[in-house]
Amino acid sequence: MGSSSKKKKEKKQDFQKPKLKVGKTRPKNTNATDTSFSAKSIVLKQQSLSESGRDASTLFAHNLSLLSSKNDVQRRDALTYLTTAVAANPDGLPQPVSTVLSKAQPLILDGHSPVRQQLLKLLKVLPKDEIGSLEQTLLYTRAGLTHLSTDIRLTALDVLDWLLETNPHAVMGVAGSWIKTLQTFQNLLSWQNAPTTAPIPTDGKWSSTKSTSNLGSNKLLLHQLNSLSRFLLAGLTREPPDPNAEQRQAAACFPLYQTSAHLLPIKSNPFGHLNLFGAPRDVESEVYEDAEERVNIFVEMKMHSAFRHGVGEVKRTGGEVGRAAAMVERALKLVEVS
Amino acid sequence: MKRKIGALEKVDADLPNLQHKIRNDPPSYRDDFVSQYSQYASMLELFLQSPTTTDDTGVVRLRDLIDFISHVADCYPKITAEFPNDLIKLLELHHKSLDVELRDKIVGSLVLLRKKEIIDSNTLLNTLWPLLIATPSKALRALLFQKIVSDLRTSNSKTKNHKLNRNIQTICYNLIASDPASPKGLWAVKLTRELWRRSVWTDAKAVSIMEIAALSQDAKVVTSGTRFFLGSDQEREEAAEDESDDEEEIDMRKLKHKAGINKKNAKHDRELKTAAAKVKRKEKKKNAHQTLNFSALHLLHDPQGFAEKLFQQHLQPAQPKVRLNLEQKLFVLQLVSRLVGLHKLTLIPLYSYFIKYLTPKQPSVTAFLAYLAQATHSLVPPDVLEPLVQKIANEFVSEAAAAEVASAGLNGIREVCVRQPLAMTDTLLQDLVQYRKSKDKGVQMAARGLLSLYREVGAQMLKKKDRGRDAALGLRDGQNQGAKFGEVDGGGIEGIELLEKWREEQGIGSDEDEEAWKNWDAESDDSMSSGGWINVESDGEEIDISDSEDEKDKKASKKKAAKEAEKENEEGEEKADAEKASRATASLEPEAAVRREEARISKLATTRILTPADLAKLNELRQTAAITANMPSAKRRKLQQQAQANAARHADDEVTADQIAGLAALSHKATKEERIAKAKGDPDEPKNDHRSTTARRKEKKEAEGKSTTNKEKARKKNFMMTLGKAKRKGKRSLVEHRRILKAHVDRGKRGGKRGNY
Prior knowledge:
Chain A: Belongs to the IPI1/TEX10 family. The structure holds two protein chains of two kinds. The model of chain A is unreliable at 194-205 and 207-215 (pLDDT under 50). Helices cover 53% and strands 0% of the residues of chain A. Chain A is built from 15 helices and no strands. Chain A has helices at 2-14, 56-65, 72-88, 97-104, 113-125, 135-145, 150-166, 168-172, 177-189, 218-236, 245-252, 259-262, 291-300, 303-315, 319-337. By secondary structure, chain A is mainly alpha-helical. Among the domains of chain A are: 56-132, no CATH class; 134-199 and 214-239 and 280-338, Leucine-rich Repeat Variant (Alpha Horseshoe), CATH 1.25.10. Chain B is 67% helix and 0% strand. Chain B has five domains: 12-240, Alpha Horseshoe (Leucine-rich Repeat Variant), CATH 1.25.10; 298-477, Leucine-rich Repeat Variant; 496-541 and 552-565 and 606-626, no CATH class; 670-703, no CATH class; 719-750. Chain B has helices at 7-12, 15-24, 30-49, 62-72, 83-94, 100-115, 121-134, 138-155, 162-178, 185-197, 204-214, 219-245, 252-261, 266-287, 303-315, 326-343, 348-355, 365-374, 382-396, 403-419, 426-433, 441-457, 469-477, 496-506, 510-518, 520-525, 534-543, 549-586, 590-600, 604-607, 612-626, 633-648, 657-661, 664-667, 672-680, 693-703, 710-716, 719-727, 734-750. Chain B is extended and about 95 Å long. At the A-B interface, helix 6 and helix 9 of A face helix 1, helix 3, helix 18, helix 20 and helix 33 of B.
């Protein structure tokens, strides 16, 4: 009997009508399907586990990608691997040298000095003639030169030295390399443009002192002066004019006239200086291909006088710094030769 | 060997430190700034070559440099002249691919530059606004929106910056107008709504943005546009209230008391002073001139055109350009009906649109009923409304329908008929009124509401037995005939006949009037001269408090005079009412009624100019006459309450679905839970529960922070503690004994310990 009343209740429940209220929405049907869903994501806690069985090229690519790793030890190790790989087999690299350089150059501004040391080693083993465009490298170098940290400045100077040593012509061919780099040096050494007037515009109440950035770092100043002299030498030295060159060339390919203009260009991006597709450039970021042009703009921007004045002051300190300043002065004399 | 780093150099190596130094002494740190700026320049150039890379590797990141430079940019305006443009360009070109943190930093820096007044508001807003519309990132949109609103608020904080406002409003307007079908218009609507809420934009131009939004072709834009018109003004008021409420109350008395007791030191002194200043400021703010803001519905240029367009575009066509679901359609319908009701527009097709929705099974039919009532006004032709009322009666109100349905239907009919009484026919009304005999409470109440309405506005349509005494008497007098369609009260002054009668009784003739006008401004200063002038001034004088004795005396005498005058008035009125009643019962001929009606139209207003005192008296007379004096007091009170409730409901207020469904709550028996909840009392609805009066009073007292009286304390005292006192009865002194005896006698007179006094 008990079970029958229970059954009756159950049956009743099955056929109960939902109560409808006036002005309200209908309650959902009992057989309505719930179509809502929530998305889930999968998180991988570690990277690929299999280290073995990979060939050299994948390993090379892997290490190249590790250059942008968050972990500084990993970055350094990757640099070490790349250095040995490049040194062992400079010709048959799995990836072009320019790719390696473009991946490695952001590390000029890296916060850890072991990484930067290793980077310098890598740069030195890179084959000279396959480096490619230096535009970005020079930008990174300039950023490094003005960096807050002295260590990074030193590294950037080393990189600049390497650039000038390996490929001075390419460096000068980069847009903005000449004036902008010189301006950076001018800033760093605080050799202001107009030596005759007050060096820094002040309120007139206080005499301002030299910036503190050079304090206690003779080493940095020395390095800066050395690099500057190298840079000036590279920029201002004219190629020895060869009086017979033209005749010789004409004789070599006699029936043709101005052959070189019709041949395929031998350097990469030969019309880059025309800046056909980029944004319009101002005086600072213009390309100055010829030493003559460089000298002219150097004098025009009143940098020559500013540099001479600055060098004169530094030379008076004597010692190692004085000697380096003398080097710079010698480089500056190249302007007056013409 | 490690190189030793000088202390100074170490300190130099972080930007915040340099920033601090630069702020203190810009000229000395110029070189450092220039080198940082050139580093920024080279980093930027690098970045522009590959904007997608994150710059997280280095020690100094581009975003740190940007932050640093924007913080000190005002120190070196010449060097950083190009900096804002760089940022703007970077953001405009690469906002999609920029690293999130860098992007936010750039936005923040631009706002900072605006705060330092390096760039102006227009530049900033013209940069941020297109980004807000273009960017796919939700986080950036939220950030940009917040920045835009805050910038507009600050530039409007002191005075309205009309030029900027006009500029941005035009941009918003064009955004919707240029492409009505795009969902981007939502941002214009959102901005306008937010600024409206904060009372930054309060002009017709902002309303016109919302107007075009409501007429656009995107469902979301349409909905938010219509919702603006329906709810923005409440929102604005609430926001204003919130602003004034958010500072907690400071009790100066308590603080002063505390200061008197606690140890005195400089800090406490300072705290007291700041609190006093705060209170003063608040007081000042409270007394400050309140700006009058027009509601958005009143600022519309062409309400008729707007309502027509809304209806024709969204509701009428079977295949509208934008598909709205029922909820969105209801919003539009609500707005249209609100406009029609508020501005008394004529939109005939709207009423036939309602017909197909007036069935009990229609979802949210109560809303439809409410909107129908809202769209009704005295200038709607009755023959348009008649079928609707008939349909509601047929569909909702029948014995077979559920009680809830019937009460909702009756309520709906009543709300319609309040606004247009002519929409009802005799037979239908007489039929509906009979539902007041229904067993269900809700139906009963709704039918009674309808009955009492028609007793006022159209008693002749009711059966004789349903009319009630007042309405029947009124009908016999020839009043209460009900207005004809389109009839407007011809600008009479309500209650002028009362004033005339009063003047007759007082014996004020026209000669005295002239005198009164001659020196009426003098009289208004000197309120002692005649009884009739007192009420103009008395309010103000009672408020200010002064200590001098003379003034007190004067005031007392003045009060006395006022009281006497009032008494006289009352007596006069009672007499008049008695006369009226006797006359009404004596003469039954219709001719007499007509004659009296003619006599009722007073000559007073046409023959003389009313003085301010006359008007004040008129107001007073009108109020007292409204509640008939010979009614029993309980009924009078009830009538008064009703009148107050009606007055509280403003004509601009909307009819809601809850008002229609309201009585339906009476139709079902309360469950146990509901009853318990009522008995316990709901803190949100203190008026509507079943607690005792005492409990309510007690709670009120507690809420005010007041303690109990000594008497209450004594009553609650533990019995054992009172024993000692009781025992001492024999040892009382004579004085004590006398006091007790006196108290006993007094108590007897009052009628017990807690008798009424």
